[in-house]
Amino acid sequence: MGGAFIVETQIGTNMWKYYLRKFARPILRPFRQLITKPNRSSAGAETQVLLAMTYKQMLHHGVQLPKFDQVGFGVYSQNDEDGILLYIFSLIGTTNKKVVDIGCGEIKGSSTANLIIHHGWTGLLMDADGSLIQTARKFYANCPTTRQFPPVLLQTFVTAENINSLIKDHGFSGDIDLLTIDLDGIDFWIWKAIDCLSPRVVMVEYQDILGPDKSLTIPYRPDFKLSDYPVNKLYPNYVGASLPAFVKLARQKGYRLTGCNCYGYNAFFIRSGIGENILPEVSAESCFTHPWNQFGMRERYPRVKDMEWVEI
User: Fold this and answer.
1) If pLDDT is split at 50, 70 and 90, which confidence band does 44 have?
2) At a CB cut-off of 8 Å and minimum separation 6, what does 269 contact?
3) Which of 174, 227, 231, 179 shows the shortest CA–CA distance to 205?
4) Nearest-10 crossing angle of helices 45-60, 81-92
5) What is the pLDDT of residues 12-26, one digit of tens each?
6) What is the pTM of this model?
7) Closest CA to 125 of 144, 97, 106
């Protein structure tokens, strides 16, 4: 890719666009294929850096940018979130490479591990499951790229009452690049309560079985546990909030919906004033195209439709 910069100065932007069309396409093709094979990626740091440079040059030279469903891949993430986050930050840039991950889970399935391991991010990672935190602590302590300065790993049960103090007490308040929330529970109320952070990008898991029209969330219960509700035995049905509810909250906080993951249950929001012309707002309806969403609305929603929901 380095030779392209010399070519640009010699023969101009038109040739650079030709170069991208000819050479960027083969680079991007393997990553597009990863969407159908989540967690099968062997994309290491070098490959991802090259891909990020390609995105930046495509943006700089006005080449048509791909959509979220064309850039996703999973190195550590459950599905294609690693690729989408790489794409977003390649286009809008980073400031301090700080992430707060609430409900971080295990390394396999983490949406922030790739940024921390391969791209030098620092993080505050929280989860109520002590065994997962211990496993992650051991992993980062032995990983060559993180053992000198591993992320802060915190085993805790978060509530609307303690979330801000937890963040501030561990040095992550103020401006950060990314906030992720995946609790399978009171996710809406946690984001609503956070006022000590100003993330540039927010990724939240929404309850897709509620569909693109209902603006609902489970009631706030600081002691909410997934296992307390029999309807959650097979799938997490009575949890979280709908995408329209998150969209309303996001607008109140100054964010716009820019897309979702391949299965339509993780949403990406970007702060107003950052890259509107690059990553414009999309509709909630556009995030419900996968058959998984249709299955959820048809088969899972009827199990919980008569349970207590709060309209937002």
Assistant:
1) confident
2) 201, 202, 203, 204, 246, 250, 255, 256, 257, 258
3) 179
4) 50
5) 445 445 545 555 555
6) 0.88
7) 106
Domains of the chain and CATH, by start: 1-94 (no CATH), 97-312 (3.40.50.150)
Residue 98 and residue 94: Cα distance in Å, rounded? 9
Q: Which residues contact 101 (CB under 8 A, 6 or more apart)?
A: 110, 111, 112, 123, 124, 125, 126, 180
Q: List Cβ neighbours of 230 (8 Å cut-off, separation of 6 or more).
A: none
What beta strand segments (E) does 82-217 contain?
A: 98-102, 122-127, 152-155, 174-181, 197-205, 216-217
Q: Is 14 left (phi over 0), alpha (psi -120 to 50) or beta?
A: alpha
Q: Is 27 exposed, middle or buried (0-12, 13-18, 19+ CB in 10 A)?
A: middle
- 87 with 68: CB under 8 angstroms? yes
pLDDT (0 to 100) of residue 142: 96
How many residues does the structure list for the chain? 312
pLDDT of residue 32: 47
pLDDT at residue 31 is higher than 80: no
Non-local (6+) Cβ contacts of 104 within 8 A are 110, 112, 125, 126, 127, 132, 136, 153, 180, 182
Using only C-alpha atoms, the chain has a radius of gyration, in whole angstroms, of: 20
Q: Are 16 and 9 in contact (CB under 8 A)?
A: no
At residue 139, the 3 state secondary structure works out as: helix
- Residue 152 CA to its chain's centroid (Å): 19
Q: DSSP per residue over 90-104, as a string? A: HHH--SS-EEEEET-
Residue type, 23: F
> Hey, what amino acid is at 79?
N
The one-letter amino acid code at 169 reads D
Is there a contact between 285 and 98 (Cβ–Cβ < 8 Å)? no
